[in-house]
Design goal:
Blueprint (H helix, E strand, L loop, with lengths): L1 H11 L25 H4 L3 H12 L35 H6 L14 H17 L8 H26 L24 H18 L14 H16 L29 H13 L14 H14 L6 E7 L3 H4 L19 H6 L10 E4 L5 E3 L10 E5 L9 E4 L7 H6 E3 L35 E3 L17 E7 H14 L5 H14 L5 H4 L9 H15 L6 H7 L3 H4 L2 E6 L12 E10 L12 H6 L10
Antiparallel strand pairs: 1-8, 2-3, 4-5, 6-7, 9-10
Helix pairs in contact: 1-3, 3-5, 5-6, 6-7, 6-8, 7-8, 8-9, 9-14, 14-15, 14-17
């Protein structure tokens, strides 16, 4: 199948497709790739494989910043983990301010048509691939299982964004069905269908492919997707929340569960453990004597060592420049916009290396942090002659908040006053205050939180000469599965605290931290479910930062109303000197974030409601 290999490299790995899709067209049309008939498409190996490749092309490009104002969608800037700098021309801003409605969502996150187009194209493939006589039966079954998984995954992406939706099942889009008779199926119907499709795919899909086929769906990928889905299903948003009680569809069925089912946590725990028990994946780790250096290099290697054993399913990004140019500090490097910034809350969450404790436990009304006195953290003062653990060629005057942090902090966060990550163009000190080397501008391309995101920068590459590098975006990786399992073990009716602690500690120890038991000896985890829950949530925030988890986590936990709204606190980059620029303020980013209960789900767009007059809109819209 060498032709298939080539197609996957060209089409899948680059994120392109054999056809240019116009998402404004009818998303239930059949796209035949320029061929005359279905018979012609599925008669030859090459066109059949090309059709499957274009089904992969409908996967959400969650890593892709260039589509933030169009039909792609990145959840990072609308969560509380980020504070992207731009205040005009960006799709996430109306969402952040709560100024959107069912008629105005087309330009920010409206993926309904794209997902249903992918669903329809996958169904066409499943129905027709058996016609092909040039492909061996085993290969046909695997390809059909890939399409079956992809179709279910598109349903999942709709479900997590919009809540329960209409499920076509195995039937093709039937234009004899009258639109006014279509309404949402129940959450349980959605869940049962997606899980059944995942299970069918799991039975057939191989554990691995040849390296040339990296990026194709495997058995482990389908099992990981099942783990995430069942975890979401157990969390409050999908498991009997009062917010959606009494909500019925056109058929008279309750759309959401009417009461919580704690046993769903058992299902979530088992699904995660099934992935672990494959023994196919391992946390990426390098051997180094120094625990901090080992933690930094191990965490960085998850992205820089392509297709390593921690990646369960990923997407090849042939050119990372679209992302990285928005992280690079402007006016210091040759090309940099500097707008992809971690929030001060995310920066505050990274644990302390020595104590292993998360330093900030909350905030006062004026934005000042409430600091755990046992953590060893200080948000005041400076230390002279401090060497960054990665860029250690020159000492700096470092703010004390940057000293003694978790390895992942140094691998992910680039702070005001650090030297740039490589010296190909000489040593470059980066400061973000007014008059600094990457100075605050008020508008345009500048850093507004006091930090930029460095996680995806490979410091060995000369980005200023256009060597931005490549990247494997992890749709699923093992540390997520470990944290899924830890959460489910803590929440299920028969709590398994030892298992929960074991797997969260595996993630922490990889970063050079001590165990939770060592970090918090005053907590009896066997008796205190709430304390362990909070620590698991903090660990997810830092371990999976900027990987499109946080927004969905705070929604499905139903804590977004507490975590999102309010002023955006940053470092005071309006200051004209380095020392004062480390004060906290809300004047840099004056927009106040909004989160209302209706925002737990996106609205069904008015375009769909005009087509399907009896389709039930989400709560509050």
């Amino acid at each position: 199948m060498k032709k298939f290999i080539k197609l996957f490299v060209i089409i899948i790995m680059t994120g392109s497709s054999l056809t240019s899709c116009n998402y404004l067209d009818n998303y239930l049309d059949v796209d035949l790739q320029g061929q005359m008939t279905l018979e012609e498409v599925f008669d030859k190996r090459q066109t059949t494989e090309a059709f499957l490749s274009q089904v992969y092309g409908y996967l959400p490009r969650e890593y892709y910043p260039g589509g933030l104002t169009n039909y792609e969608w990145m959840d990072v800037p609308i969560s509380d983990e980020a504070l992207f700098s731009w205040l005009t021309g960006v799709g996430w801003l109306p969402w952040m301010m709560g100024t959107w409605n069912p008629s105005t969502t087309t330009n920010y996150g409206y993926t309904w048509k794209k997902d249903y187009t992918g669903i329809n194209q996958a169904t066409i493939f499943i129905e027709n691939i058996d016609r092909n006589k040039e492909i061996e039966k085993r290969d046909i079954e695997v390809m059909k299982a890939e399409a079956r998984f992809l179709r279910a995954y598109f349903y999942f992406t709709l479900l997590r964004k919009y809540g329960p939706i209409y499920v076509w099942g195995d039937q093709p889009a039937d234009f004899t069905i009258r639109p006014e008779n279509i309404d949402r199926h129940t959450f349980q119907q959605n869940l049962d269908f997606i899980i059944s499709e995942y299970d069918k795919a799991i039975e057939v899909l191989p554990l691995t492919y040849e390296d040339s086929w990296a990026g194709r769906v495997t058995k482990g990928a389908a099992m990981a997707a099942k783990s995430r889905l069942l975890l979401y299903a157990a969390r409050p948003l999908f498991n009997g929340t009062d917010l959606y009680k009494g909500m019925k569809n056109h058929y008279g069925d309750y759309i959401f569960p009417q009461s919580p089912d704690p046993n769903k946590w058992e299902d979530a725990a088992q699904a995660a453990k099934d992935v672990i028990d494959l023994n196919q994946y391992s946390l990426y780790s390098v051997e180094m004597a120094d625990p901090l250096q080992k933690g930094i290099k191990s965490y960085m290697g998850v992205f820089f060592d392509k297709w390593n054993n921690e990646i369960i399913w990923g997407k090849w990004i042939a050119n990372a420049s679209d992302y990285l140019v928005r992280c690079a500090p402007p006016r210091v490097v040759k090309q940099g916009f500097g707008g992809f910034c971690p929030s001060l809350k995310l920066v505050d969450t990274y644990p302390m290396s020595s104590s292993g404790r998360y330093p900030v436990t909350g905030y006062m009304s004026d934005g000042r942090p409430i600091i755990d006195p046992l953590s060893g953290y200080s948000d005041d003062g400076f230390t002279n002659n401090w060497f960054h653990p990665i860029e250690n060629h020159t000492s700096i005057k470092a703010h004390n908040s940057c000293i003694g942090r978790d390895a992942r902090f140094y691998a992910s966060v680039f702070a005001n006053g650090f030297y740039w990550i490589n010296t190909y163009k000489g040593k470059k000190l980066v400061t973000f205050y007014q008059g600094g080397t990457s100075s605050y501008q008020g508008s345009g391309d500048c850093v507004k939180s006091g930090y930029v995101w460095r996680r995806f920068f490979d410091p060995t590459l000369n980005h200023e000469d256009g060597n931005w590098g490549t990247m494997v975006w992890p749709y699923f990786r093992l540390s997520e599965i470990y944290l899924n399992y830890a959460e489910a073990c803590n929440e299920k009716p028969n709590r398994d605290v030892n298992e929960a602690l074991k797997y969260i500690n595996l993630v922490r120890v990889r970063s050079g931290l001590n165990t939770l038991q060592q970090a918090y000896p005053e907590i009896n985890f066997q008796q205190n479910k709430e304390a362990l829950r909070e620590l698991i949530r903090k660990e997810r925030m830092v371990e999976l930062a900027f990987e499109n988890h946080r927004f969905n986590d705070i929604r499905t936990w139903m804590i977004a109303e507490q975590e999102v709204p309010g002023p955006n606190y940053t470092r005071d980059l309006m200051a004209t000197n380095y020392e004062d620029s480390w004060k906290r303020t809300d004047r840099i980013f004056p927009t106040v974030r909004v989160f209302e209960p209706k925002m737990y789900f996106f609205p069904i767009h008015q375009t769909q409601l005009d087509e399907m007059q009896n389709f039930t809109q989400n709560y509050g819209w």
